[in-house]
Specification:
Length: 262
């Protein structure tokens, strides 16, 4: 009897351990990032411009369901990222390249990326999952990364006289030729924002310049005749946020290391 109870206890512990790890990790991620989500809320999505939402969606919002996930890192300290004489672009632009290279490489290790790659027949598109390709990508307009994402816009480098900086890359979901999976309409937006942090916002931050990373996923579908996207369900939403929080945190860590080398 005692042996049977002991085995039952160990079975419960072994079964519960992965769940406990996931919940603990999620709590750690929540301490370093904030997650917000809106579903079909026009009032909170008015800042989505034509780089994100196409004209057909903006002009007839009643016909579309728009889902938006926004994950923001805590601000971290930096030195000036202004473009200096002789530099081709601002340091903030370079940091955004570093951030995107890191997060996209991490994405290739996820089950989602593995499945996406198997749904492609185009060898050139499959090559955009490779570490060497992503590590050298400049994320210029027209660049394809991880198979289905294509850069559609990138903010201009910050000018020397600007007080604050914001570098943005927008990627469209655009499956390549030969794609055999479902087609989802959407955009990914990656942003690094630099600002002067107020003392009350950050301990010891009086007059200190900080950067925060912002990662947004915006998906849309027709209200009638199209199946719900994965972010509309509670489980899909939770799993996607968990994955993106992991990538954002690791991306920020890489950016911090680069800043330390300046």
């Amino acid at each position: 009897m005692a042996v049977s109870q002991s085995r039952t206890l160990w079975t419960v512990i072994i079964a519960a351990a992965p769940l406990a790890w996931v919940l603990y990790t999620k709590a750690v991620y929540n301490a370093s990032t904030t997650v917000s989500f809106t579903l079909d809320n026009t009032d909170t999505q008015n800042d989505l411009n034509s780089d994100v939402l196409p004209a057909e969606v903006q002009q007839d919002r009643d016909a579309w369901i728009v889902v938006r996930e926004r994950i923001v890192s805590k601000p971290f300290q930096t030195t000036s990222t202004r473009q200096t004489k002789g530099e081709e672009k601002s340091r903030l632009s370079g940091l955004l390249d570093t951030y995107l290279r890191t997060t996209m490489r991490l994405f290739t290790y996820t089950p989602q990326a593995w499945l996406m790659r198997r749904l492609m027949t185009d060898p050139e598109a499959r090559r955009t999952f490779e570490t060497g390709y992503l590590s050298s990508c400049d994320f210029a307009v027209g660049d394809r990364v991880c198979g289905v994402y294509v850069v559609t816009s990138r903010s201009a480098p910050r000018q020397e006289e600007d007080e604050e900086g914001r570098e943005t890359v927008v990627l469209v979901l655009a499956p390549p030729q030969g794609w055999t999976g479902p087609v989802v309409k959407g955009r990914l937006i990656a942003v690094l924002e630099e600002e002067e942090q107020k003392e009350e916002d950050m301990e010891g931050g009086n007059g200190v310049r900080t950067i925060r990373a912002v990662n947004e996923t915006v998906l849309w579908r027709r209200r009638e005749g199209e199946a719900p996207v994965f972010l509309e369900g509670a489980v899909g939403r939770w799993l996607h946020a968990f994955m993106v929080q992991w990538m954002v945190i690791r991306g920020v860590q890489t950016v911090k290391r680069e800043i330390e080398m300046w």
